[in-house]
């Protein structure tokens, strides 16, 4: 049985045993807009939180917090022209420690994608495009590594892949995928996963 000393829901901290409210995450020192979307505990034991710049369609950040105190420890990843991070949501650390983050298209000339960052430094490493410019969108709001080491990505959007779950082989910078669950149009059971 896993003992959770702290349970973190959105930006609130709770006791993992009793469910008692402890307090909120404290973004004091962060100068951007604090609209948390997703969170994950990293291999270093810190809490990583993706935040959006609502109502702006562009940008976003990944912040680090101390999960015991809720105190802000700094910006880990900031949107820029190189990484093209826009409206980050789901985030997960992979088997070798890299951080994978969902990112939405900036405009009609961009793609929905998963961005890959070095898990210790935050340096942008690579991306996985989920759709093609000018074609129907296929975006992801969440993602998860399975016990097989593959990245599972539920697809939402307005295209024929909506409702599918893609399974990516991300080892050695390969970006190939197979369809783990079929899209809704082909009888899949998920509508907007």
Describe the structure.
It is a single chain. The chain is mainly β and 193 residues long. The chain is built from no helices and 17 strands. The protein has a 4-stranded antiparallel β-sheet, with no helix packed on it. Strands 8-9-10-11 form a 4-stranded antiparallel β-sheet, with no helix packed on it. Strands 13-14-16-17 form a 4-stranded antiparallel β-sheet, with no helix packed on it. The protein has strands spanning 6-9, 12-15, 21-24, 35-41, 47-52, 61-65, 72-78, 91-93, 99-103, 113-117, 124-129, 138-139, 144-145, 151-154, 156-157, 165-169, 176-181.
SSE arrangement:
Blueprint: E1 6-9, E2 12-15, E3 21-24, E4 35-41, E5 47-52, E6 61-65, E7 72-78, E8 91-93, E9 99-103, E10 113-117, E11 124-129, E12 138-139, E13 144-145, E14 151-154, E15 156-157, E16 165-169, E17 176-181
Antiparallel strand pairs: 1-2, 2-3, 4-5, 5-6, 6-7, 8-9, 9-10, 10-11, 12-15, 13-14, 14-16, 16-17
CATH class of one domain: Mainly Beta
Distance between the termini: 29 Å
Structural class: mainly beta
Please identify the oligomeric state. Answer: single chain
- Overall pLDDT level: 88
Instruction: Please describe the biggest sheet, giving its number of strands, its sense, and whether it closes into a barrel.
Output: 4 strands, antiparallel
Radius of gyration: 17 Å
| Unreliable stretches covering 5 or more consecutive residues | none
Please tally the helical runs, counting DSSP H or I stretches of 4 or more residues.
0
